[in-house]
């Protein structure tokens, strides 16, 4: 092989080697860029996942706290209602015991008068518990009739009947023709006032 040919071949080999190195360098650079980009995307995805996870965790925490607060409020209301109901039950029991108290005579008279005025006077049936008739003397009856008559402008006559059942005390007053009645038993009076009394009891028992 001539010297000139060897030089040409040598140059070709050198160029091929340089080209190969350049290609390898470019490939390496491109590979590094691809890896870097992939790592960047992976990190971004990781951050997104973490951020999403944190948001979900916060939402879950809020849901748990919200449910816990709701359950606590509900339980508090239930306990409060049970306590208030217990107060009313004890009040009814005290009212029942009131029949044995000296004050009961005056209370019964007031309830009869209130009922008589409510039904408008006239010929009235007064239902009381058996044994309560001893609290209404003839003089008491006349006084009650007069007071009802004065308030209603109608002559009033009371018919005392020991026919009241299932009551702790008090009376049911009604027109003799059955057209109008007024339930002034202790339990009914307490029931009518329950809604207005309840907030006051709650305020006293559960001051916050």
Structure characterization notes:
With 208 residues, this protein is α+β, with helices and mostly antiparallel strands. Helices cover 70% and strands 10% of the residues. Strands 2-1-3-4 form a four-stranded mixed sheet. The mean pLDDT is 80.
Question: What topology does this entry show?
Answer:
Layout: H1 3-97, H2 104-119, E1 123-127, H3 138-152, E2 157-161, E3 170-175, E4 181-185, H4 186-205
Shape: rod-shaped
Strands side by side in the biggest sheet: 2-1-3-4
Count of helical stretches: 4
CATH architecture of the largest domain: 2-Layer Sandwich
Look at the structure and name the CATH superfamily of the largest domain.
ATP synthase, E subunit, C-terminal
Order of helices and strands: HHEHEEEH
Mean pLDDT: 80
In whole angstroms, how far apart are the ends?
Answer: 111 Å
Largest beta-sheet details: 4 strands, mixed
- Using the coordinates above, name the CATH class of the largest domain: Alpha Beta
Beta strands, count:
4
Q: Bin the strand percentage.
A: 5-15%
Total of domains: 2
Low-confidence stretches: none
Class of secondary structure makeup: alpha+beta
**Fraction of residues in helices?**
over 70%
CATH topology of the largest domain: hypothetical protein PF0899 fold
What integer value in Å does the Rg equal? 48 Å
Family: Belongs to the V-ATPase E subunit family.
Keywords: Ion transport, Transport
Organism: uncultured organism
Protein name: ATPase, V1/A1 complex, subunit E
């Amino acid at each position: 092989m001539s010297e000139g040919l060897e030089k040409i071949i040598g140059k070709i080999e050198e160029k091929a080697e340089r080209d190969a190195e350049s290609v390898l360098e470019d490939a390496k650079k491109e590979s590094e860029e691809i890896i870097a980009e992939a790592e960047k995307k992976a990190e971004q995805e990781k951050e997104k996942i973490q951020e999403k996870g944190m948001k979900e965790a916060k939402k879950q925490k809020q849901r748990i706290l919200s449910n816990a607060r709701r359950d606590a409020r509900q339980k508090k209301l239930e306990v409060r209602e049970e306590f208030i109901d217990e107060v009313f039950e004890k009040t009814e029991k005290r009212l029942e015991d009131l029949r044995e108290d000296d004050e009961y005579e005056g209370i019964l008279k007031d309830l009869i008068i209130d009922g008589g005025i409510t039904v408008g006077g006239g010929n009235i049936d007064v239902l009381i518990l058996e044994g309560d008739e001893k609290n209404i003397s003839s003089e008491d009856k006349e006084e009650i009739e007069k007071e009802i008559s004065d308030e209603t402008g109608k002559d009033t006559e009371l018919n005392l009947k020991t026919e009241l059942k299932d009551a702790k005390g008090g009376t049911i007053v009604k027109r003799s023709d059955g057209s109008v009645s007024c339930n002034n038993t202790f339990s009914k009076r307490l029931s009518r006032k329950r809604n207005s009394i309840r907030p006051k009891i709650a305020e006293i028992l559960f001051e916050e």
